[in-house]
């Protein structure tokens, strides 16, 4: 009984981190039809910026995190205009090549700026303590991660399903020509969506830094994980990403508790199984 | 075959050339190490330390200029290491090889250095078998056995009788596990569980929970330095193993390049290792002083001191034998000197360094920086993986 609860808590926390980082990827890949392999790079830039603001300049964590997310969004906006706009029109292979090139640019920049060693993030003292739940003591940090993950899932659902912006976004995605004929500024809608995705990745990178430590090679190290979450969940589906991240997080954690010698094989086995049965992902729409 | 004949020809020419010319020449040393990618930090530490050594001891021996040439091996990449070694020997005409961060990269050049009779000085690669693969390997770095077994004996003396080992599931991790276990059981202790963790794990909570359930006196860990050591120590604290009375025992987990990131959470962690920049000796002061003067942003650690001592071994070989490879290897056997890490010597049998192993504790220095403070010394430890008396 105790073990099951442990697995659940650790698995859910891990799943939430995966969700926060990959949901932006799911939105840009599914809704905007661009294969953005540089997405993990925004998570890393978020982590690197919070390291710079928090550890090197000594700004308190929450403020530093907000500044870092702001900085990543501020960087993503011109990047969308200059770099990504031509990429939308490319074929799939060209998109992969172009965005992996952007990933290497990001890696090299962080390497030059802050070096290739681990970039630490100082959490406020209140976050680093443990909460005693009786059967085990739980790191405060994980509870915060779970809470923020749930809030983001809810917020995104409302934003895309219930707001005027969401309607415009879905219209622009389904038929860009008609949408712009109806007076929707599709360029601006895409710009805002891209910035939102980058900001969410930065948030995930910052909050997840205790589980997925940030260094210059972060985007390459974890890229496969983020892509798997999106693939298993189904592109463009927020609920799908949420379920996939949660399921894979719990599965990976369970395997580590029970059969650590097998490594991460179960993670990949289940991925293969799901994609074999549902190639479009759990909740993905047929193309 | 063609390459091998050329190798022989080149080395023969080199020897002949040396005998013929009495004047000054440049003796080149080829260093193969990662200077790009996730492990680029090794290349940086190596070249900074070699530079410091040359700044202190000069760049000339008997009128001959010593030049270090660096080649990027990337990560674990034996084929690349082998072709770089060939290129360095044939095209650049290097007389000595050095570097090697990873065991597979070192093993890949064994045949080549045998044929060209080029001494190769290992700056890091730390599994025991390497020096047995070629007569021309000399290793002034360390092995996992060398630092793990003393930790086991010391821990047992402290009254720790039950330990869980948790290591990363790859060569060095398994060396550390067997080294610790052999010594700990020989001392009379029990290893109640041995956990091998996947190489790409960064969430260690499950393993910590498992350790907690076993309730041993201590957990002995080995992980490759970087993100995973950081996450492991975090998980040790977050799951409050210390509060549950489970001591942390490790080797390089509190390496100086990640120590700052760990913050105060690392205070009190105990490890056994062959070098701490906080080691108090005039040699260490000289080394660190020069290193910081040349590179104010340098972080001295085990990799820097290993390259510094590696440069010393190369200098001594050149002083004794010039560019005659076999004579240089003979000269290095039994070599003794005082390194920044303490008194050391090269074992004539294994060509591996015999050195002190220190038990350290993470503490704060006068300026409030985290350091590994050495508080106990186990003297003159050989490579226990080869000279095994358990």
Automatic annotation (TrEMBL), chain A:
The chain crosses the membrane at residues 12-35, 55-77, 97-121, 141-160, 189-212, 224-251, 258-277. Coiled coil: none annotated. It comes from the Bacteria. GO terms for molecular function: transmembrane transporter activity. Its main location: membrane. It is a multi-pass membrane protein. One of its GO terms (cellular component) is plasma membrane. Keywords: Amino-acid transport, Cell membrane, Membrane, Transmembrane, Transmembrane helix, Transport. This is Branched-chain amino acid ABC transporter permease. It comes from Pelagovum pacificum.
């Amino acid at each position: 009984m105790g073990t099951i609860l442990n697995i659940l808590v650790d698995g859910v926390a891990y799943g939430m981190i995966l969700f926060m980082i990959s949901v932006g990827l799911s939105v840009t890949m599914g809704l905007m039809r661009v294969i953005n392999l540089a997405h993990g790079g925004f998570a890393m830039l978020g982590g690197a910026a919070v390291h710079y603001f928090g550890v090197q300049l000594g700004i308190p964590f929450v403020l530093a995190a907000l500044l870092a997310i702001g900085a990543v969004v501020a960087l993503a906006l011109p990047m969308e205009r200059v770099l990504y706009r031509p990429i939308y029109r490319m074929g799939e292979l060209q998109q992969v090549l172009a965005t992996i090139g952007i990933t290497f640019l990001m890696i090299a920049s962080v390497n030059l700026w802050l070096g290739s060693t681990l970039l630490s993030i100082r959490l406020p003292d209140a976050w680093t303590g443990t909460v005693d739940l009786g059967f085990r003591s739980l790191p405060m940090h994980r509870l915060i991660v779970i809470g923020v993950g749930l809030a983001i899932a809810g917020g995104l659902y409302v934003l895309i399903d219930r707001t005027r912006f969401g309607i415009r976004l879905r219209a622009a995605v389904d038929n860009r020509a008609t949408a712009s004929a109806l007076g929707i500024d599709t360029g601006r809608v895409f710009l805002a969506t891209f910035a939102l995705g980058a900001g969410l990745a930065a948030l995930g990178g910052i909050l997840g830094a205790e589980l997925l430590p940030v260094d210059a090679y972060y985007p390459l190290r974890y890229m496969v994980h983020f892509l798997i979450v999106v693939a298993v969940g189904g592109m463009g589906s927020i609920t799908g990403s949420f379920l996939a991240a949660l399921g894979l997080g719990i599965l990976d954690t369970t395997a580590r508790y029970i059969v650590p010698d097998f490594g991460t094989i179960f993670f990949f086995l289940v991925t293969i199984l799901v994609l074999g049965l549902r190639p479009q992902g759990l909740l993905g729409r047929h193309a | 075959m063609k390459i091998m004949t050329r190798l022989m020809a080149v080395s023969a020419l080199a020897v002949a050339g040396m005998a013929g010319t009495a004047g000054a020449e440049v003796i080149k040393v080829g260093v193969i190490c990662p200077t790009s990618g996730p492990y680029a930090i090794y290349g940086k530490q190596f070249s900074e330390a070699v530079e410091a050594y040359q700044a202190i001891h000069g760049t000339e021996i008997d009128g001959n200029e010593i030049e270090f040439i660096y080649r990027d091996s990337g990560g674990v990449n034996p084929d690349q290491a082998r072709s770089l070694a060939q290129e360095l020997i044939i095209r650049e005409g290097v007389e000595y090889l050095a570097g090697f961060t990873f065991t597979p990269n070192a093993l890949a050049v064994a045949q080549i250095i045998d044929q060209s009779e080029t001494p190769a000085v290992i700056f890091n690669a730390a599994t025991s078998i390497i020096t047995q693969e070629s007569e021309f390997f000399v290793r002034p770095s360390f092995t996992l056995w060398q630092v793990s077994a003393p930790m086991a004996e010391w821990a047992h003396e402290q009254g720790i009788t039950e330990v869980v080992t948790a290591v990363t599931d790859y060569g060095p991790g398994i060396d550390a596990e067997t080294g610790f276990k052999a010594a700990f059981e020989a001392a009379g202790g029990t290893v109640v569980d041995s956990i091998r963790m996947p190489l790409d794990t960064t969430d260690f909570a499950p393993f910590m929970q498992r350790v907690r359930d076993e309730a041993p006196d201590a957990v002995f860990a080995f992980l490759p330095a970087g993100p995973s050591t950081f996450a492991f120590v975090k998980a040790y604290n977050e799951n409050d193993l210390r509060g549950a009375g489970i001591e942390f025992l490790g080797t390089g987990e509190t390496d100086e390049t990640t120590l700052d990131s760990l913050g105060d959470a690392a205070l009190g962690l105990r490890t056994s290792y062959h070098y701490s920049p906080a080691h108090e000796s005039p040699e260490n002061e000289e080394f660190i002083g020069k290193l910081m003067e040349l590179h104010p942003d340098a972080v001295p650690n085990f990799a820097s001191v290993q390259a510094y001592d590696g440069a010393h071994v190369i200098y001594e070989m050149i002083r004794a034998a010039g560019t005659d490879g076999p004579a240089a290897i003979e000269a290095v056997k039994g070599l003794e000197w005082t390194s920044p890490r303490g008194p050391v010597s090269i074992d004539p049998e294994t060509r591996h360094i015999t050195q002190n192993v220190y038990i350290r504790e993470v503490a704060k220095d006068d300026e409030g920086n985290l350091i590994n403070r050495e508080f106990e010394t186990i003297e003159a430890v050989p490579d226990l993986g080869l000279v095994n008396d358990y």
